[in-house]
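Section 5.1 Outputs to date
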Amino acid sequence: MMLEKTKKIYNKMSIASKAALWFTICGFVQKGISFITVPIFTRLLTTEQYGVVSIFYSWESIFIIFCTLNLFSGVFNNGMIKYENDRDGFLSSMQGLVSTLTLCMLLLYLLFFKKISLWIEIRRVLIIVMFMEILANSAFSFWSAKQRFEFKYRNMVILTLVVSVLSPLVAAVSVINTPDKFGADVRIISSACPFSSGSFCYKYSR
């Protein structure tokens, strides 16, 4: 009886309300998975390795600002309204700009990697992985923003949940089956791998 009432209420909801509901549920699940995986990786990694992972993601959050300029937030919605007849073109332009900025940042790092590596205390291979992950994340973020704008929540929710589950799962399995001294590197690289699917999101959304 309760289930039937819930279904009736859900069916009467507008597409915007349904999208908002599922986006909220998706956000809660993501946060929950992140919360659950913290104690798992603190046990799998040494204190030093976990520190390397934390430093990596701290610097990544800083580099993301310069590489993406947060173009997939409020600015993106304005562009989708302004270029209503050419949204794919606008999307491609935004992704092209972010890719160019990211590659320029990577080039600057490669030119001055010795000084920068000493400053940020992260090895060169992990920095390269960081920029590759930023590229994949930006593609995923633009695709997600487009889905939100058009209230196409089904594909987004499915893909987001799959990546949210797959990323820590792959990382945990990889760390368990890797020698201890490579734990931090494997944790970072294996977590980034599922996000490579973000580069295919534009094709998937059509």
